[in-house]
Amino acid sequence: MLYLKNLGYRLKTLKRIDVMAKESMKAREVKRARLVAKYAAKRAELKKKGDYEALQAIPKNASPVRLHNRCKLTGRPKGYIRQFGISRIQFREMASNGLIPGVKKASW
Fold first, then answer.
1. What does the DSSP 8-state code read for residue 97?
2. What is the DSSP code (8-state) at residue 30?
């Protein structure tokens, strides 16, 4: 019994883990998005010509396939709701607070 009390005390003292992404990961994703936009026309032109040698010379991160959707508020990569551009956690919080127009909690 003493062990359980001690364990409960330890759990209370631990810090809460945030669901926010690392700043470096968010910055990397922004950098990739810029590269994709910069090389979009060139990629399309090379694909149309069928020049795959020149296409290989373009940076890897210029490919739109390498982009990953992230929450606009926290940067969380998983649980992304495309229609709103935020993660499921932020969506639930905002919907509960009435911050998203036209969305309300279902109750029956």
1. T
2. H
Give the separation between CA 95 and CA 100, rounded to whole angstroms: 6
Structure confidence at residue 14 (pLDDT): 45
Cα–Cα distance for residue pair 107/87, rounded to 1 Å: 22
C-alpha 51, offset from chain centre: 33
AA identity, residue 32: R
**pLDDT for position 107:** 78
Q: How far apart are CA 16 and CA 5, in angstroms?
A: 20
Are 21 and 68 in contact by the 8 Å Cβ rule? The answer is no
Position of tokens 């969506």? 91
Tally Cβ neighbours within 10 Å of residue 19. Answer: 14
User: Mean pLDDT in runs of 10 for the chain (108 residues)?
Assistant: 47 53 89 96 96 95 94 93 95 93 85
Helix (H, G, I), strand (E, B) or coil at 81: strand
Q: Are 108 and 59 in contact (CB under 8 A)?
A: no
Could you give the CA distance from residue 61 to residue 86 in angstroms, rounded to a whole number?
23
